[in-house]
Amino acid sequence: MSNSSISNVVHAEKPDPRRWFALVVIGIAQLMVVLDASIVNIALPHASLSKALGGLAISPKNYQWAVTAYTLTFGGFLLLGGRVGDYMGRKRAFLTGLVGFAGASLLGGFAQNQQMLFGARALQGVFGALLAPAALSLISVTFTDSKERAKAFGVYGALSGVGGAIGLIAGGLLTQYFSWRWCLFVNTPMAMLAFSLAIPNIHESKVEGHPHYDVPGALSATAGMVSVVYGVSQASTSGWGSTSAWPYMALGAALLVVFFLIETRVKSPLLPLRLITDRVRAGAFLAQIFIGLGLFGMFLFMTFYFQDVHGFSAVKTGLLFMPFSVGIILSAGATSQLLPRIGPRILATVGCTMGALGLLFLSLIKPDSSYVAHVMPAMILTSLGLGMSFVSVASSALFNVHPEDTGAASAVLNTAQQIGSSFGTAIQNTIFVSSAGAFMAAVVHRPATASGQAALVSAAHVHGFDLAFRFGSLMLLLAALHFYLLVNIDRHHLGQHDEVVLAA
């Protein structure tokens, strides 16, 4: 570290005595935001039923929008949400996000048609985009000791990874014993609990100065991502040669170019270029994108594998994800202890590689594969690796960040995950639909009996799942490669974080 940098160091004050209570509050909110990206997956078969049976008559080709309507607005507005939190105050942004998220969840629970449901999910994403970066920023400014910060990021990383699996478990229980609508209603008591605990336990922090909000940047980024994902979803049903797909993808790409041009010209950009030109943070952000591309489609496809191929109930389907949740928790806890001793580079590289091997093993499943002998070991291997990765990536993304960029860096990290999960789900759904259709078309002599036809459909679907999982495995290998090549920090650098993060 240079002498000029040392002269600007502002040493940390005494640790906040209520910091661990604050972490509990932040953890509740983070869990709510993350699990909401997956909790509707199990509810979808029930929500898509006819209105006479209590559903909304959702068309199968629109299933993914119950997930991507949330992840797209979440990812698109995270950068703006991070900036709002920096200037408005991270505690105030946190509380506002909780109230808005609870209201949007109620709206979705009372949805009368699929358009109302998708709109409510999009609104959830907007308020989640205000809530999530505020939560991560509050961790960074509340925990000033490197070892304590590693533990705090361990909790955050565990919740980021396990939230998707917990969402599936909770979705199964709520759907079977109450109604699919409770998958949305459940957010309201969680938000109220976090709100009541946040007021006495979280201290306000914000950046001084006149706020400048880059609304054009937020709109162009969100519109660009929605357009690209919609184009990919059109390709999954109409084919990659369809004229209905490429115009949307081209428009989306153009809007994203406009976004980056805006960021080079505005006074207070949503995405300060210094964040993505920094080697360490660029490596962490890229790894997060590739993890999202590879991982989150697995939850959706395994849900349909359990329910449609094996005929399991919603509750049993959710419980079958339990080993994944436990693996994430155990791995993230161990990683938070190892991070100050080993550093993030080795941990994340090994973790992403383990996750890739787990998905590759999962891609070998058949319609009659054993859960205990095949599916569960693949899930455990994947979860142990990703628990290591989530903690290491989160720690690296906020390494050496200046106070005025804390919210932006937190938002970029969350955005990277949401971009990855949105595009990954759409791409993997395209792979699934096209490969399953090709499998069916290749069968010349189809069974005449109903049972034989059902077995053929199951085999085609599993073939599609397998190819989607192979794509996911490749993405996790790319995450490992990018992290190893770009994130060149070790445990010795982490020890300097206490001082550098507070540098003016």
Explain briefly what this protein structure is.
With 504 residues, the protein is mainly alpha-helical. The chain contains 21 helices and no strands.
Helices and strands in order, then pairings?
Elements (H helix, E strand, L loop, with lengths): L2 H5 L11 H17 L3 H9 L17 H24 L1 H20 L4 H29 L3 H32 L4 H4 L1 H15 L13 H24 L7 H18 L9 H5 L1 H31 L4 H6 L2 H21 L1 H19 L8 H27 L8 H37 L7 H37 L4 H4 L2 H4 L4
Which tags fit this structure?
single chain, 504 residues, mainly alpha, Growth Hormone, Chain: A, 21 helices, disordered N terminus, disordered C terminus
Structure description:
There is one protein chain. With 504 residues, the chain is an all-alpha fold. It has two domains: 17-214 and 266-500, Up-down Bundle (Growth Hormone, Chain: A), CATH 1.20.1250.20; 215-265. Helices cover 77% and strands 0% of the residues. It is built from 21 helices and no strands. The chain has helices at residues 3-7, 19-35, 39-47, 65-88, 90-109, 114-142, 146-177, 182-185, 187-201, 215-238, 246-263, 273-277, 279-309, 314-319, 322-342, 344-362, 371-397, 406-442, 450-486, 491-494, 497-500. The longest helix has 37 residues, at 406-442. The chain is globular.
